[in-house]
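A student in our group prepared the protein record below, which I am reviewing. I have pasted the whole thing underneath without changing anything:
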Amino acid sequence: MRALILDWDGVFHDGRKGPDGSSTFSEIDSMGLNLLRFGHYLQTQTLLPVAIVTGERNASAEAFAAREHLHHFCYFAKDKRRALAPLQSAWGIDSEDWGFLFDDVLDFGLAAEVGLRAMVYREACEETYHYAVNQGLVDWTIPADHAVRRFAERALTEAGHWEATLEGRIQMSPAYRAYWDARQALPLSVLDLSEEAVR
């Protein structure tokens, strides 16, 4: 996995939103994503490209992306495949080398285009999940509770980098400080992927 796409609703939270579209995220997931990015930096000395791609313009999601210094926040993506061309152009990484953490029907088109598909599983959407599995769209099944953290820890463990990443973070090692400085200098790119914007 050389780049990562994250859905927002149903991935960073349970899918509930307020009347104004507001939602929440967990610092547990935030730390997981930070560890995953640091683990990538330890191995490559480069920042893992990360984008949130979501169907709405959610203020919580955009604030999180800015706070965490992600590469991209893509909104109004009713067809999430619209993210493919701009992100490939920005990152120079083929989508077969991307991971995608997602949870529902709106995500299936993009999931078909990437190399590592991780679907959040919840009982309320069991038939939808089975459809995705039968269509070959699920490589990893991630429990819904703190899905981002679970995904990050699994990715680091399967790559054999979990302990080195954790120890580097605990010790605030020179490598972690270099990663942090590079991360904090990264400006967020905000992309409108509405049909009108991408014509």
Q: What stands out?
A: The first helix runs from residue 27 to 44.
